[in-house]
Design goal:
330 residues; mainly alpha; Arc Repressor Mutant, subunit A; two-stranded antiparallel ribbon; 10 helices
């Protein structure tokens, strides 16, 4: 009773809600297709194989969502067998789709990680060069102290000081080049993975795998939810239209149906004259069967003649429904 009451108060969704649902569904399906294509297209570099694997990915994605829609239809019809096979088929296609989405999203995150790793390697290279120069400066300063202790300031210290000056200028150039590197290399996704890795105490590769799996499953569930929403809305719209038609039929007064009288064609005058002559001469009794046998006519034709003679008053009909000849008419 609660379900019927809620259905009675509900109306079909308007154009804005439907356009929103269809837009979200289309975007979810498109995103799932794109991520599956990223995986399937990387299987083989042959252009023909790329076309084949790309078409296979699109077929799998569209078939998956149609099978989910069919599952809702079978469940609404209480077709348990059809619902079971549809759910089983969807599970297989969803596993393939989630695997494709994982591969596609993982490829995108790997690109981000590789860019970040390249940036870090460049910074580390600069730091190593700066540290190497710093070590050389320290060695030169140590050698200058030894020259000072040996009282050979004029012969060795001035050269070491000039060398250190050049090294420090080189250090400054490397620091400026290192600091000139753009700071926007780290993306939001990488920042999220770093934060999660620090928060849960896991490596960034483990966090990357869990995050990619979560996004892939969420994308599939998002598309399946909106496909189910479309199917439920279509079923409710059909039911609502039938209910409206039934209510309109119940409230419309039924017009009385008048019996239709099918006019029988009048018999031929020559046939009427023959039957009348036959009856008046007494060659046949006033019986349809006898007249039909005497003139070799169909019983329906004789019936039309008798009705005609009855209307003219040549024949009469008693209370027992038997015909008799009216002598006054002659």
């Amino acid at each position: 009773m609660t379900t019927q009451a809620s259905d009675a108060l509900r109306y079909p969704k308007g154009w804005f809600a439907l356009s929103t649902v269809y837009s979200f569904t289309g975007l979810a399906i498109l995103a799932s297709i794109v991520f599956s294509l990223l995986l399937f297209l990387s299987i083989d570099d042959n252009p023909l194989m790329k076309w084949l694997f790309g078409g296979l990915a699109i077929i799998f994605e569209l078939g998956k969502f149609y099978v989910w829609y069919e599952y809702g239809e079978c469940k609404a019809r209480r077709d348990l067998g059809g619902a079971f096979w549809s759910l089983l088929f969807y599970s297989v296609l969803a596993a393939i789709s989630i695997g494709g989405s994982i591969g596609g999203i993982n490829s995108a995150t790997n690109t981000i990680l590789s860019q970040q790793a390249r940036h870090e390697r460049e910074i580390a290279r600069f730091d190593e060069q700066i540290a190497s120069i710093e070590r050389q400066i320290q060695l030169n300063e140590e050698a200058a102290r030894k020259y000072i202790e040996m009282a050979r300031i004029s012969s060795g210290v001035s050269g070491l000081q000039q060398a250190n000056t050049r090294l420090r200028l080189k250090q400054d150039e490397l620091r400026q080049e290192r600091d000139a590197k753009p700071l926007n290399e780290q993306s939001s996704m990488l920042g999220l993975m770093n934060s999660l890795a620090d928060g849960v105490g896991m490596s960034i590769s483990q966090v990357q795998f869990l995050l990619v799996c979560f996004l892939s499953i969420l994308l599939d569930a998002f598309g399946a939810y909106f496909v189910s929403l479309i199917g439920e809305e279509n079923r409710f719209r059909r039911l609502w239209q039938r209910q409206q038609q039934q209510r309109a039929a119940e409230t419309t007064p039924m017009a009385p149906v008048e019996p239709q009288v099918i006019a029988k064609p009048a018999p031929e005058p020559a046939l009427v004259a023959r039957v009348r002559s036959l009856l008046e001469s007494g060659e046949a009794r006033c019986s349809k069967r006898k007249v039909a046998e005497a003139l070799a006519l169909p019983l329906e034709e004789v019936d039309r003649v008798f009705q005609h003679l009855l209307a003219e008053g040549v024949l009469g009909q008693g209370s027992n429904r038997h015909y008799h000849l009216n002598m006054q008419a002659g």
